């Protein structure tokens, strides 16, 4: 298997983001997801008690990069808003026992149109609602992906094989989120404690 894996993530014909797996100069694996849409009303939430930041205004161009560093079992969340970078790190306990993170989207049809790139991973959007949650996880020890609390198992599931052990399958699932009453259009939820 190649040391680099590239894909872009679609919900139907709408562009969600890109995925890149690579090895750094020291041979350490890293999985990076980039979301470069104009992210309206981005907030960060977590199951771990924390203070939520003020929502970002719709007019602020935002890039959201989320990386998993395999040797360190560390999830890095990097937000770039108008050139200013904010970073947060989360320790992922092994064996993995839950989702890495979720993205709640109030209306997936407001995402940018597909960029017609090769190797897309296409998630099938729901028919009954535009409000969705995308769940990112590795396979559990039982060989099944994790489902976030309160969400039904997803129909639109995609997996990506990675040259890592034991975390060799990355899962991206989609579920309906009909109870999303948030004023925010795009919400990142990381149910992990922050690293020191």
SSE layout:
Elements: E1 5-11, E2 14-23, E3 29-35, E4 42-45, E5 62-69, E6 74-81, E7 84-91, E8 101-105, E9 112-113, E10 120-123, E11 132-138, E12 156-161, E13 169-176, E14 186-189
Parallel strand pairs: 1-10, 4-14
Antiparallel strand pairs: 1-2, 2-3, 2-9, 3-5, 5-6, 6-7, 8-11, 8-14, 11-13, 12-13
Give keywords.
six-stranded mixed beta sheet; mainly beta; single chain
Structural class: mainly beta
Percent range of helical residues:
under 10%
Number of strands: 14
- Distance between the first and last residues' Cα: 34 Å
Task: Give an overview in words.
- The chain is mainly β.
- The protein has one domain.
- The protein contains no helices and 14 strands.
- The chain has strands at residues 5-11, 14-23, 29-35, 42-45, 62-69, 74-81, 84-91, 101-105, 112-113, 120-123, 132-138, 156-161, 169-176, 186-189.
- Strands 1, 2, 3, 5, 6, 7, 9 and 10 form an eight-stranded mixed β-sheet that branches. The protein has a six-stranded mixed β-sheet with strand order 4-14-8-11-13-12, with no helix packed on it.
- A hairpin with a 7-residue loop joins strand 12 and strand 13 (169-176).
- The chain is globular.
- 29% of the residues are buried.
Give a summary of the structure in a few sentences.
With 196 residues, the chain is mostly beta strands. It is built from no helices and 14 strands. A hairpin with a 5-residue loop joins strand 2 (14-23) and strand 3 (29-35).
């Amino acid at each position: 298997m190649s040391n680099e894996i590239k894909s872009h993530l679609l919900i139907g014909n709408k562009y969600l983001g890109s995925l890149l797996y690579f090895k750094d100069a020291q041979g350490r694996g890293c999985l990076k997801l980039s979301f470069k849409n104009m992210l309206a009303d981005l907030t960060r939430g977590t199951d771990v008690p924390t203070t939520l930041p003020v929502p970002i205004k719709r007019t602020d161009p935002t890039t959201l990069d989320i990386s998993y560093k395999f040797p360190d079992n560390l999830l890095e969340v990097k937000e770039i808003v108008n050139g200013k970078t904010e970073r947060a790190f989360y320790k992922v306990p092994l064996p993995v026992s839950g989702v890495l993170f979720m993205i709640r989207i109030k209306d997936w049809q407001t995402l940018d149109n597909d960029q017609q790139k090769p190797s897309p991973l296409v998630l099938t959007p729901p028919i009954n609602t535009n409000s969705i949650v995308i769940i990112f996880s590795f396979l559990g020890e039982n060989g099944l992906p994790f489902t976030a609390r309160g969400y039904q198992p997803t129909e639109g599931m995609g997996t990506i094989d990675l040259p890592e052990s034991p975390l060799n399958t990355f899962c991206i699932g989609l579920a309906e989120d009909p109870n999303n009453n948030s004023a925010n259009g795009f919400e990142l939820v990381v149910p992990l404690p922050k690293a020191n």
